[in-house]
Each structure stands twice: as C-alpha cells, then as structure tokens.
Amino acid sequence: MFLEDISLATKRIPAVCGSCELGCVCLCTSLPAAERSKLIEQVVRPTRIRAGDHIYRAGEPFQWIYAIKTGHVKTYAQNGSGEERIVGFPMAGDTLGLEALHERYHNVSSVALIDTTACRISVRAFERFATEISGMQRQLLLTLSRDIARHHQWLITENQRAERRVAAFLIRIADKQKARGEDPEKILLPMSRADIGSYLNLAHETVTRALSCIAKTGSIRTKRRKIDIDDIEQLREQAFDPDYHFG
Amino acid sequence: MFLEDISLATKRIPAVCGSCELGCVCLCTSLPAAERSKLIEQVVRPTRIRAGDHIYRAGEPFQWIYAIKTGHVKTYAQNGSGEERIVGFPMAGDTLGLEALHERYHNVSSVALIDTTACRISVRAFERFATEISGMQRQLLLTLSRDIARHHQWLITENQRAERRVAAFLIRIADKQKARGEDPEKILLPMSRADIGSYLNLAHETVTRALSCIAKTGSIRTKRRKIDIDDIEQLREQAFDPDYHFG
DNA sequence: CGACTCCTTGATCGAACTCAACGTCTGTGG
DNA sequence: CCACAGACGTTGAGTTCGATCAAGGAGTCG
Fold first, then answer.
1. In whole angstroms, what is the distance from residue A180 CA to residue A18 CA?
2. What is the DSSP letter of B33?
3. What residue of A is the nearest CA neighbor of B157?
4. Which residues span the domain enclosing B105?
C-alpha cells in the first residue's frame, strides 16, 4: 500500500491489506496494469501519525481519504461549548474521513491514540479519476452502508444498562481483533476510561465500575488498560442475552 | 419520477423531486436522451404504501433502493428478544434501504406511518448499469456520507437531558419541513410518543412530560400530534444553548 | 355508544451522575 | 536510582433524572 510496497506487492501482502477498504485502488488486492499502477502512484500517499497527533480537525477542508494500516485512532465531535463526544475508534483496516464527503469539510476531529500508519488518497485525485476507480466508489458505498448498519445494531444495545454496554464494547473489540487474526482474548485498550465513557455515553467512573462488576463474574480480568477475556461466551451473554442478570 | 410522470417532466416538476436522492437517474432533474430514458424505464418503478404497511422487513433480501416522494416512514431494528428500537423517520426526499447494500439483506424493518409514495430502482438494475449511472453512485455516496455526519451531530445531543433532546427533535423536523418549502411552525407528527421515545431513548411518558415542560415555557403548543411552534428561536436555545436551563 | 389506542399526569424507585478521596502507573530530572 | 509530579484508575457517598407502575382523560373507529 505504501509507495515503497509497490515492488513488493507480489512478494508479501500485509495481512491487514486483505481487508483494507481502499482495496480497489490498492496494489495489495489487484495487481495493476501499467496504466493503473501509474494512476495509483499519483493517488496513494503513505503517512505516519504519532500518538496524540491530530490527523484532521473539525472545520478543516476534506483533502484525504485515509485507510488505517496499523494503529488506533479516536474521532470526536464537539458542540458549541467545547464538550466533546467520541464518535468512534477506527483501527487497522478502517477508512477515515468519509463523513466529510458531503460537506467538503470535516465536522469531527481525528487523533491517533497510539503511533499509527495510514494510506491515503487525495480527494482531488479521487474525484478526477472517479470513473476509472468506480470500483472504489462501490467499495466506499459498501463501507458507508456497513457503518450505517452497524450504527443501527448499536442503537439496540444503547438502552441497556452500563455493564451490558461495556461488555458489548469489549466483545466488539475482541471480534475485530479476531477478524484481523490477532488473539481475541488479550485486549490492550489504547483509550482511557473517559474516552470509553464518552463513546458509550457513560461517566468514566461508571465504566470502571462496570468493568469491576464484569470482572467479579469471572468473564474478564482487568489490569488498567490490559483486559484478559477468560470466558468470552459468558461475556457474550452478559452483552447480548436478555436473560442474563448481573449480581 | 413515476412512469406516468415521464411525459410530464418538462411541464411540472414536483417540488420534492428537486432534492430527491435518486436525482441522477430521475427524469425530474436531467432530461434524458432516448437511450437514457429507456434505461430509466427499466429501472425506476413507482410504488404506493398504505399507512401501517411494511416496505421491507429485517431479514428480507435487498431488492430495491427507494426514494420517498410523499409520506413518512419509520425504520426500526429488533434484538433477539423482540424489543424494537426506532432508528429513523425517513420522509419525503429521503432514500431508504441503503444500509442493506453491504449485507445484501435488510437488517432493519421499514413501515409507513401514513400513506406514502416512493420511487424505486431495482438493485439488480443498479448493479447492471453501475457505470452508466455512476453519477447515482456518487449521489448515494454523498447521501450516506451525510447520514453519517448527521449521526455524529446527533451523538452530541444524546447525553443531554430529556427536554433538550425532544426540543432538538422538533427543531430538526421544523428545519426539514422548511427545507422542503413547508411551514416550519406547524408540525403534524405522524408518529406516536412511544415511537419518539424509542428513537430518543426515552420512555413515552418522559416524551410527554418534556413536551409539557417545553410548552410551559411558551416555545410551543401541543395538541396530541399537532405541535405549533410559537417561538422557534427560544426552542432552538432550549435544544442547543448550553446556558439555557428549564424552570 | 363502547372498545380501543394513545396521551397525560402523579408517585415511587433505581441506575447512573457528581463530587470527593485515595491508589497506581509513567515519565522526568536531580 | 530515587523522588516527585501528573495523569489515570478505582472506590465510596449522596443526589438526581428518568424509568416504572398506576390511573384517568381524550380522540377514533366500528
């Protein structure tokens, strides 16, 4: 996906590229014809972001469509008085910034939680070559469609109590890690309790209490940001089984 | 937009078609060349839905992309034990069903709140003519992007108290009516208090109480589903101004 | 008119928020 | 290496907002 990867594309494809949402312009998924590779050279640009650095801020013009290769990011919205709300934690394989497609400027901010690498395509290039990379248009449509479907599923867990929402949050992270071929039972959260709370609409103390409560049942063990899942099936029940009741 | 409208397209374009999200295949926005009109004849099909009838149900295959011409719809998700949660109230000018693009089947259900007419394009036709109607692909990308951006804005109001959320709900409806050229100060809600509550994550009694509370300030008058907005600026403060506090 | 659904209002209860204090980890500089 | 600062996490106590339960009112349709 990086420019320097072009010559390597036939040799070794990083695992994360297989699920990358920029796949249709990316060398990793379809070997390019000469012209196509030229297009891609003009289009794809790699970028590295240090932990704590912003990738973009709300209000800035929409310049790049990103796909995260490694790392973890948080995106947040702010209201008039500066209160912020986490809207998501994009990680490797996710695209970033697409919500700005409509208004042409970002209405959320995006910051790296840990050191992160991301591939990007300039919006101008994307627009210019819209027909050539209509496969990518389609890919982005699918991505956005899936995001919306996920949001709908999310709504269902939203009126559940705190322990369930936190359990569901952990399950989703574990599932995502599993899909990426990582160990789903060892979670290293890159974000603070306050971030989780902002995302789940809970106070940070409530997140802590919920984690303690879940830990007491034996599903997980917590050591600050390290979470070990000992009984993922029970955790799944705690998250989604309406018959399960805590303590 | 309806087949029978084709001959009329040059004479009178319904106001709602100007903002229709199927615009790029619709006769109302761009007069067709002979071939294009033939394509459109194959593609666009009108449909009428009676109040209470389902347009599609969760689990059904994804067959049509809809654009609502007149009427009002609610979409809802269900969890394993049958509890439902309203995910949105699409109205005239909105597209419907796109969240299914990714999984190829619907994961929410959609039902008309009042008698509704909708234009639709079959997914098969859309896929078959994907290159010809790449303008529509782009249009749908913008639509989904905007939906996600709206969701992000929605998150900010979500941790506010009940009165604010209800006030914000009314403001959004008023703004949408204004955008469609209707009177923004006379709202006729097509959905029940329970539906609003499910959407806002509130009990239906809380919705009633919030409306009563807002009415007491003089911003609105409520008569069951008829809401008159008397002071929209105050209502806007009640929804979004962090300095505003209720009685 | 009666049956039904929806809306409204009141009273009580509980889950989560807020405030506060303390514990724990990390990084920095002497 | 240790001391310290600062950020983050945990736990407890009191409060509050909204859910729940309950009852009655109002509109609608046969």
1. 9
2. P
3. A79
4. 3-145
Question: Residue B93: what residue type?
Answer: G
Report if residue A140 sits inside a domain: no
Does B171 share its domain with B132?
no
**Which residue places its CA closest to the C1' of nucleotide D19?**
B203
Q: What is the pLDDT of residue A20?
A: 65
Residue B9's nearest CA partner among B33, B27, B30 is: B27
Dump pLDDT digits (tens) for B169-214.
999 999 999 988 889 999 999 999 999 999 999 999 999 999 999 9
Which residue of B102, B201, B242 is in closest CB contact with A158?
A: B201
Measured between beta carbons, which residues in chain B are less than 8 angstroms from residue A137?
A: 134, 137-138, 141
What residue is closest to C24 (Cα–C1')? A224
pTM above 0.85, yes or no: yes
User: pLDDT at position B23, please?
Assistant: 62
Looking at the 3D structure of chain A, how many domains does it have?
Answer: 2
Q: Model confidence at A93, in pLDDT bands (50, 70, 90)?
A: confident
| Cα distances (Å, whole numbers) of residue A167 to A25, A239, A245 | 37, 5, 13
Mapped onto helix, strand or coil, the DSSP state of residue A189 is: coil
Q: Which of these three, A134, A169, A186, is where a domain ends?
A: A134
Q: Is A142–B78 a contact, with Cβ atoms under 8 angstroms apart?
A: no
Q: Are residues A129 and A164 in the same domain?
A: no
Residue in B78, B100, B156 closest to A77 by CB: B156
Q: Which residues of B touch A95 (CB under 8 A)?
A: none
Nearest protein residue by Cα to C1' of nucleotide C17: A203
**Would you say residue B52 has pLDDT above 50?**
yes
**Backbone φ and ψ of A150, nearest 5°:** -65, -40
Q: Nucleotides of chain D within 7 Å of a protein C-beta?
A: 8-13, 17-22, 27
Contacting residues of B for A110, CB less than 8 Å apart: none
Positions of chain C reached by protein Cβ under 7 A: 6-11, 15-20, 24-25
> Per-residue pLDDT tens for A110-142?
999 999 999 888 898 888 877 777 777 888 899
State the pLDDT at residue A110: 97
pLDDT grade, residue A1 (50/70/90)? Answer: very low
CATH number at residue B54: 2.60.120.10
Cβ-Cβ contacts under 8 Å, B151 against chain A: 87, 148, 151
Same domain, B137 and B165: no
Cα angle value B69/B183/B203 (rounded, 5°): 80
In a domain, B152, yes or no: no
Q: For residue A242, which phi and psi values (nearest 5 degrees)?
A: -65, -20
Same domain, B126 and B211: no
Which residue do the tokens 């949402």 mark? A21
